[in-house]
Here is the input.
Amino acid sequence: MTTKLLLGDEALAQGALDAGLSGAYAYPGTPSTEITEYIQRSVQAKSGDVHCRWSTNEKVALEEAIGMSYAGKRAMVSMKHVGLNVAADPFVNAAIAGANGGLLINVADDPSMHSSQNEQDSRLYTDLALVPCVEPSNQQEAYDAPAYAFDLSERVNIPVLIRLTTRLAHSRSVVKLGQKRGVNKLAPPTDLRQFILLPANARESYRNLIARQPQLLAESESSPFNRYQDGVDKTCGIIATGIAYNYVQEVYDGISPHPLLKISQYPIPVALLRRLFAECDDVILFEEGYPFIEGKLRGLLGDREGSIHGRLDGTVPRTGELNPEIVAHALGLPRMDGLPQSDILVRRPPALCPGCPHADTYRALNAVMERYPQGRVFSDIGCYTLGALPPHEAIDTCLEMGASITMAKGASDAGLAPAVAVIGDSTFTHSGMTGLLDCVSEDAPVTIIILDNLTVAMTGGQESNATNRLAAICGGLGVSEEHIKMIVPLPKNHEQNVAVIARELAHQGTSVIIAVRECVQMLRRHARKGGEE
Amino acid sequence: MKKDIILAGVGGQGLLSIAAVIGEAALRSGLFIKQAEVHGMAQRGGVVQSHVRLSDRPIHSDLIRAGSCDLILATEPLEALRYLEFLKTGGMLVTNSVPFKNVDPYPQDEEIEARIEALPHHLLIDAVTLATQAGSVRCANMVVLGAGSPFIGLSEESLQAAIEQVFSGKGAKVVETSLVGFSLGREAALNATGVN
Here is the structure.
């Protein structure tokens, strides 16, 4: 039997490879990135048996995966939670069209927002789309989930969402590998109307999707991922979802005195819930994420008997990820005898690396913006968001992928001037191009600075689809040639760069400044690689 | 056998390599392991930490409970102090003594040292000097691992074999320097007075 020490992300990737995966599509995003990176390093990738190049954003990634499923092959798409917002349109509609080859949507949620701007819970999306969800509790289940979910997807002809959370995605453990399965043959759907969601077809498909919900529920009730463990103390029953199950096991050293319902597959297994409620006086819920099950149990009218405990009655904190201490406290177990926290700690926030090209661009931009106290700098998602912190304090906004250009345009429409957008190369191709087209259509007085460090830096240096294409893209979208400027952000070019930015800010129309210099981390990595060859 | 270890340091100090070596050594020793780490935004000069759990029985949680950690192993002294509430009474703290000052204000060196000296079981080690002796300041992480090695519950041989495995892709020179750094750290720990 083969075993491997794998991150949750990697276990999921290995599980998919062993389950006959033909295509892995993704846009990098913490904590999901290592799923696709693992596949890219695999033997299957090197021999060309699995497609695994980065896609330009999550929406196109999911659509590409749907296309592969259409062709009959097993495909998956991986993203962080907020990526599913970007991919929400194909996600909801893929559920209605259904899967042909098995189709998995792997979403890594980030409760506590370690590297994110919200902690939305992807299980809510599965309610919207009416698709099943598997939420592994540990690395072994993360490995087992793809084979199981591919089979399920092909059995019910519906995509399946696999939900990971940060602590499982980024924690390593030993995983036992299972049987390897070959890939599917090319086999487009025989029902030629399946993927034509004209209203007449879609109405029927939607009815079919609803008609299959009892089958999905039955799959959950009998799923190996859901488990009812009986306990002697029935004053209280416990529901634990995903990784929260491990914390309950930890604080009871593997033997819960209370009945314990582990839920790792959805729709929510109602019969298992009924049994727990029938046998126990009170019920306490531990959900890594939103109070998803808890909210449904309470309903609109609330918990009249006061027997349901969790995030909504304050037994468990309303926000943030769980940990064994929170679970122990909620279960009334005493703290362990430890030391008090140190009294001299200071925060150590992340910062742009020494020599980072973004720092030079921000110094030049700040020098120009000093002349415009009314002006604002709209920024975006990436390393350069750290420009909000001292010593730069160069940006005023960061909302979501692509919002720099569009918010700058909206503010400019309102009369704010100058309106500057700062966006990274990969973020620009992910979600900035359409906003730029809106600027161009009206020749809106917005200056867009694209920080081109030739990589997707924040997530660890993945290939950027923007590399060497930015000037051509901007020109193609209609930005006039004389207002597409290239600068090299280096200290020695400071005065020159200040002059370029000042000139374009003064221009009463759309202009783009592309600041090109390779990420210092990637430069170092490439230098090391070069030395080895 | 059960050891709960918190690795602490600053992004770029090679903390995850320490975790990889311990993981590999634990596998070679037939132990169960869980190792949680932080990726992404935290890696850029920010706080980096990893929970490493080793046991001869299956391990449930990826995270260590407060008050139950056996060893804090740190590449930076202020970072070592960040997780004190995890350390159990009688737990050990081993840290590089050389601070990494990328924030202002940063506590006085004497203040940090005094807090560490006040702990019943601790070891402060100048990993930068020992790493330089070993041939490269970049192996300071392996010096720290060496200094912590008597308290990890894994054999010296298994850790050395794991170092060879983990750094094999980086060339023989890096492996050799890492092994020397590890040995210097381990010697310093074994020779240090006041180590229980």
Q: What stands out?
A: The longest helix of chain A spans residues 139-156. Residues 91 and 200 of chain A are 20 Å apart (CA to CA). The domain at 3-221 of chain A is CATH 3.40.50.970 (Rossmann fold). DSSP finds 21 helices and 19 strands in chain A.
